[in-house]
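Structure tokens please, single chain.
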Amino acid sequence: MRVRRTLPAIASAAILVMALSCSSAPPKRDTVANVKNQAAEASVFGNEYFQQGRYDLALQSFARALEYNTSVDNTEGIIRSYDSIGRVHMAVGDLERAEELFARAREMAREEGGTLLFASTNSLGEVYLRKGEPQKALSIFQEALAIPAARLTAEQTGVLSHNLGTAQMNLGNGAEALALFEKSLSINLANKLFEAAAADCYMMASLRSKEGDLAGARKDGERALQYDKQVENSPGIVLDLYALGTIALRSGDPESAYDYFRRSYLAATALGARAQMRKALERLVETGDALGRSEEAEGYRKTLEELENR
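Here you go.
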């Protein structure tokens, strides 16, 4: 995982309890190998649901995988299940529960090392970033640097550089952050990890925009959009378009901004991403009024009211 543009979602705080209570234990006649396979299958379904933003179903699947793995004392599987359940809690904003689960996974993974230790350490650092504690996050990510590079995948190396860059950016260290994002981008492009490359460009655009380099920000935003389109990453496309609209507006180009916000709204509507639909509509009303497109702005205003009343 890397810190990235995520579309908001809503889930019940009691989902995990419900998921654990309604899942069934594996039949006693199953061999250890069969139970591990069942756990792996449940995790696959969980990951699919997670990518679709269906967090309640993802949590049920991951909880079932945890129960299977625990029943046969599959330490690696247990660690992965804790990390997966923690990711869902982080996605729905339950950061305290996510922190608890990642810390538990990390403690178990210390003896395993390598990929498992990296995953839980990185996830814990991401929680601290979400909680607005960049210095704590930086310390955690720096611990991950001690894991031998030979034991990490290229994707994980890129993730670490990206997240270190995010922590540095949040601490106000722009030059250090930019260098880390560029390092991550180089790794991801070399390995054809285009969604990850889009995340790097998006963060670089954000950093340059904050520093007043709007031309550079727009260029990076366009690259993020290009890479997300290349892999059909719809949630990323929604956010890239919105960011480009914001940059264009700050650059004194309301016509382009209006078009980007319109495209972001249409893409968000196709996904059913209501929070992002609302944000794009608010900008369309504001920008439409400024451009003298009163009729269009009024139409968007009514659509926004209908969305908020649903």
